[in-house]
Amino acid sequence: MTYSVAVSGASGYAGGEILRILAAHPDVEIRTVTAHSNAGQPLIRHQPHLRSLEHLTLSDTTSEVLAGHDIVFLALPHGQSGQYTDALGDTALVIDAGADHRLESVTDWEQFYGGNFHEPWVYGVPELVVAGAKQRERLIGASRIAAPGCNASTVSLSLAPGVAAGVIDPGDIVTVLAVGPSGAGKSLKTNLLASEILGSANPYAVGGTHRHIPEIRQALVAARATHAGAGVTGPDDGIRISFTPVLVPMARGILATSTAPIVNDATDAEIRGAWEAAYGDETFVQLLPEGQFPRTADVLGANTALIGLAIDRAANRVVVVTAVDNLVKGTAGAAVQSMNIALGLAEGTGLTVNGVAP
Amino acid sequence: MTYSVAVSGASGYAGGEILRILAAHPDVEIRTVTAHSNAGQPLIRHQPHLRSLEHLTLSDTTSEVLAGHDIVFLALPHGQSGQYTDALGDTALVIDAGADHRLESVTDWEQFYGGNFHEPWVYGVPELVVAGAKQRERLIGASRIAAPGCNASTVSLSLAPGVAAGVIDPGDIVTVLAVGPSGAGKSLKTNLLASEILGSANPYAVGGTHRHIPEIRQALVAARATHAGAGVTGPDDGIRISFTPVLVPMARGILATSTAPIVNDATDAEIRGAWEAAYGDETFVQLLPEGQFPRTADVLGANTALIGLAIDRAANRVVVVTAVDNLVKGTAGAAVQSMNIALGLAEGTGLTVNGVAP
Amino acid sequence: MTYSVAVSGASGYAGGEILRILAAHPDVEIRTVTAHSNAGQPLIRHQPHLRSLEHLTLSDTTSEVLAGHDIVFLALPHGQSGQYTDALGDTALVIDAGADHRLESVTDWEQFYGGNFHEPWVYGVPELVVAGAKQRERLIGASRIAAPGCNASTVSLSLAPGVAAGVIDPGDIVTVLAVGPSGAGKSLKTNLLASEILGSANPYAVGGTHRHIPEIRQALVAARATHAGAGVTGPDDGIRISFTPVLVPMARGILATSTAPIVNDATDAEIRGAWEAAYGDETFVQLLPEGQFPRTADVLGANTALIGLAIDRAANRVVVVTAVDNLVKGTAGAAVQSMNIALGLAEGTGLTVNGVAP
Amino acid sequence: MTYSVAVSGASGYAGGEILRILAAHPDVEIRTVTAHSNAGQPLIRHQPHLRSLEHLTLSDTTSEVLAGHDIVFLALPHGQSGQYTDALGDTALVIDAGADHRLESVTDWEQFYGGNFHEPWVYGVPELVVAGAKQRERLIGASRIAAPGCNASTVSLSLAPGVAAGVIDPGDIVTVLAVGPSGAGKSLKTNLLASEILGSANPYAVGGTHRHIPEIRQALVAARATHAGAGVTGPDDGIRISFTPVLVPMARGILATSTAPIVNDATDAEIRGAWEAAYGDETFVQLLPEGQFPRTADVLGANTALIGLAIDRAANRVVVVTAVDNLVKGTAGAAVQSMNIALGLAEGTGLTVNGVAP
Q1: How far apart are CA B148 and CA B135, in angstroms?
Q2: How far apart are CA A187 and CA D188, in angstroms?
Q3: What is the pLDDT of residue C231?
Q4: Neighbors of chain D by Cβ distance (3+ pairs < 8 Å)
Q5: Could you tell me which chains touch chain A, where touching means 3 or more CB pairs under 8 A?
Q6: pLDDT tens digit string along D263-319?
Q7: Could you say which residues of chain C have pLDDT below 70?
Q8: What pLDDT score was predicted for residue C228?
Q9: Is residue D54 a contact partner of residue D68, using CB atoms and an 8 Å limit?
Q10: Sheet with strand C317-324: strands edge to edge
């Protein structure tokens, strides 16, 4: 069968990437694209790279317009999805690329986002190690899915295997991310102007304020539960993360360098073995051979997370370097992969492991 | 008086930047520029941006050519400077922009560089806190100066105040640097091609192998000596650094994100006060006001290190973000600033605090 | 059936892009990849973005290794393909991404390339207007195909419709191209280093020396033949092109701005009509609506040439701005599209019209 | 004496660059900086690279605030300067970096800008060949100066020598410019976002609509007057320019490729001689030796226009490639250089010929 699809926020970067991927997906028909201020305009005016969708016109984002589709993607600023999803009915598969349904902790939500808390949906990172299994299992048959924060899923995928195996200490994580500006969306802000970013590395959200921090904590609590019993995320969860993103002059991409202390006298084989066990059978999350580290160019346009692992005994830390395309594996690709799983399609349908490089 | 100057390695990036700065310096005359394979060619062919030096021709790099100048800058690959400096005599001021004379520990040299060890020269980072004083004092009247490694001095300046004040623990430092490729010089290597670096973030020397690590350890041992007694650098010095550089698509610049655990129940005021005390009177190393963080564009072409400081109580870490132009404050500017001090000139002569932005 | 394929020059940029496209092509099996100095190494070491081809190892490029495949792609420096193709036999489809078989004129070859002249093969730009038809017709059933020069095909596609219709004068063409460095390959040259190209626009081959000039002349002679009788290219062919490429800081892409005088009192409708007639039915060459002009980001990774057309009456010139991904529509995509036609497959198999943006 | 200076539009890119240059100028004191919506804020918040001006606060832009300074720089959107300048009095030197006082032709103004026409001021491009002399002479003692449009002065300087000497035909000029986005200012527009410009070449104002076209026509009419009698600019002035700017991913810089037909059987010596005669004695406009062409990196931060000249006999065109930093020689440097001339200071005071590269 062919599933009918609606994509809201279709004039933005996340919405555009969902459309780019779905345009090559054999099992869906993109029937409706919606926007707010751009409603009524041709989609191609805002996504001039999507030539195969030249025939589509942006509708207004309303519950009525979104209703009646088999699948609805929401690519809206946080706080906006609730008004639409209630009206969509249980038969539709709804995938939110925004933040509204990611967090399980009301405390975290209030501290990092504020406003009304929304119930958590199934988290759309299939390869995550959670409570002795993979997140994939929870996605089978799901009708409500929360696509991940791009930085959050990158760091969670980087460290979860080590946390689950008990070879690193999640109580003193340090992660620094080189990120492209497309993750911030098409917002008209001075700090996102090309003149500000070209030729410069610009830090932001320094000192523990980034909204993806509680999302990582939540994922690592779940990973830790595989060996330490179930836990809940919160100020006392024992997960501590120093998290610093740095905007660099590339449109897309995240290169996350994440480190954590080695614990329990873990041997090199035990450490490397943790990641091998977690990802050895995965298609879209790949551990590179020893001594190799990924570049973001290698995953541009691909749904792949590439992971390089170093064991620095002098510093007593594991160093995990992970490359992800923030718009694909970080957002739209994760959404479509989760969709495939939820619907029982082959998981990789419409997705590629090959990047566009150079 | 006007000092006569010779610059070796003048066709490379470090040599070119030394020349760019010296060309605007009122107290020197650039008399000689030297190179190896490019000897005999006009300098302008290799440094087409140095229009005011169009009249200079590259000589061969030999002791004879370098002799007889008041000041000699060496911008050569490590291991090459020794053959020239012995012949230069004590009256000349010799400043080595290479690594040969930076390290005090034979063990470190052998582990990270190899080959013959060379005696350490006075380290050319005037603002560094060392043993209750500033490195500046050691530079006065010096005749042999080792300009710093660009990444090393950036990280050392970032953390030395906190180490000296005893408010952070140098035993678990994590630093990740976004760096431009000019730091790697004009080497013809595939990984330095524009096609490889444009649009991509590329890690290298992951896992504790970068040669600037012992240089940072050495600086922090000296900083710690201000409150803990003198120490020597080495495997047992108690300094541990996880150090990961990431090449990003900007020609110049280092943005170092360095974190270390808060210790001794240090208050916010004590922590911030450590950096304020260290740099409050400095021109070229500036602590930004609370909540502000630097971009590399802000220091492009300038001799300024700009430092932003965050105290992340949730992660129990101080986060120091420092922006430096690797070729200026990281190399050539540090060399000229040190030269000014050694010669008794005004320290800022020929140097600027203002970056070229956007 | 599934066609067996060999790709030579597989460690370079053009070879890598052929592989990236073929990896998603349902009708081929990539059986062999070859290189020279890198023979014996895993392909993935040189093409780390091609995760689905991780199992392949580079063989040496020899006639023996290339023999026995249904299709052979040659991505070699010019002058090298001849030694292999003679031995390949007539049953194999051979597609040369190099320059050896593009030019029909011995004089042009000797002036712009030198060395032995090779017989011209069928030119692999299906949409080109030639002698009242499309180049596509000549590709049907071909067994030897010359993939185009990326800049050449971009400019030829830009202007051929106007020349064929007699509304512009090919005797005074001016074209200036913003190009990414990947078109120059992985050569280790100082001017291709990232430090040289980041933040800078660098012209090269200024003043009529670029090797793609005779290739454009040849295409426009063929286009003109549709209304003016057949012609041959050469110094007296009446085609004059001022051609200036400028390297800009993007890994891929060509944005060609091509202008030519309006002739024969052509009306706006006649001018626009020429391009509409030529490309109205094409999938991979698209004329944008009036007032719209393409960006290279819109075609990144896609096989699309997007064309914007302006009629500047004050300057009496037609201005054609065309965006192409040099590695796809400019090289590898053109090669695969031509392959599809030659083999009787659906022309767009394995190719996409949608770019990867932002 | 020290001149007191006020700079309006000080939070923008042009204003910031005027300040960067003036901060190093020995004969001026920056007393006042003004802005509109940012009034009341510290300058450093908007120009974080100008560390030496950290003490300045933005005042509101009013006639009262600007009055009483020896020199006033206006860096405002066009149409806004008139309200201030009338009130400034004749004793102040006023330099407008905006467009209001550049054009002599009311017709041109109305066609390309619209709104009230303002009287032309002395045009601030000292090296321009005009009516047998240099524009420099007109700047001596001037009290009202119009700084040039960055693209306009780049193209005018490129071609004026050939027009003045009668060796090229200004009736069929084609110029294509690779430009950085800083020329468009800090405007919050989607097409200026980093995500839109990184990795892409984006044309704009295609087909003869760019506002710098009449400014170039005016300069070339003046240049032609040196051999053909005085002329006026306008639709019948015989100057025809096809002008296409292309935004490329570099913050600053213009690389203009300008071509015009060779006329009057001009020999190579006559052609090259025209540019040599015009610029042989100039410091800030330099003709490169035969076969050499400039890169924008070579003039970054410098007040230099570097010109490469090719004579393409096959195309019967002269090709002039000129590199300029749009914010320096294109705007702020031209303004300060003109100021120096007007005040009788050494022309190069506070300006450099050396670029910041790589």
Answers
A1: 12
A2: 9
A3: 61
A4: A, B, C
A5: B, C, D
A6: 989 999 999 999 999 999 999 999 999 999 999 999 999 999 999 999 999 999 999
A7: 228-235
A8: 62
A9: no
A10: C202-203, C241-247, C173-179, C254-261, C317-324, C305-312, C285-287
CB pairs under 8 A between C and D: 190
Residue in chain D lying closest to B16 (CA): D357
How many whole angstroms separate alpha carbon D304 and alpha carbon D323? 8
Binary contact (D253, C297; C-beta < 8 A): no
pLDDT confidence bin for D74, thresholds 50/70/90: very high
Omega within 30 of 0 (cis) for the link into D358: yes
Q: How far is B352 from chain A (nearest CA, A)?
A: 19
Question: CA angle, corner C68, sides to C67 and C69, nearest 5?
Answer: 100
A314: its two tokens: 């002098």
Q: How many CB atoms lie within 10 A of CB A190?
A: 12
Q: Are A216 and D220 in contact (CB under 8 A)?
A: no
* CA B223 and chain centroid, separation: 17
Interface of B with D in 221-260 (CB under 8 A): 251-252
C144-146 and C93-96: which strand pairing?
parallel
Q: Which domains does chain C have, with CATH numbers?
A: 3-147+329-343 (3.40.50.720), 151-326 (3.30.360.10)
D186/A193 touch (CB, cutoff 8 Å), yes or no: yes
Across the 358 residues of chain A, what is the mean pLDDT of every consecutive 10-residue run? 96 98 98 96 98 98 95 93 84 95 95 94 97 94 97 98 97 98 96 98 97 97 79 77 98 98 96 98 98 98 98 98 98 98 98 98
Tokens of B95: 């400043």
**Beta carbons within 8 Å of B208's beta carbon, 6+ residues apart:** A310, A312, A313, A314, A315, B241, B242, B243
d(CA A156, CA A149): 10
The one-letter amino acid code at C4 reads: S
**Can you list the pairs that B238-241 forms with residues at least 24 positions away whose Cβ atoms lie under 8 Å?**
B238/B170, B238/B171, B239/B170, B239/B171, B239/B173, B240/A314, B240/A315, B240/A316, B240/B170, B240/B171, B240/B172, B240/B173, B241/A315, B241/B155, B241/B173, B241/B174, B241/B175, B241/B208, B241/B213, B241/B216, B241/B217
What token pair was written down for A1? Answer: 């069968």
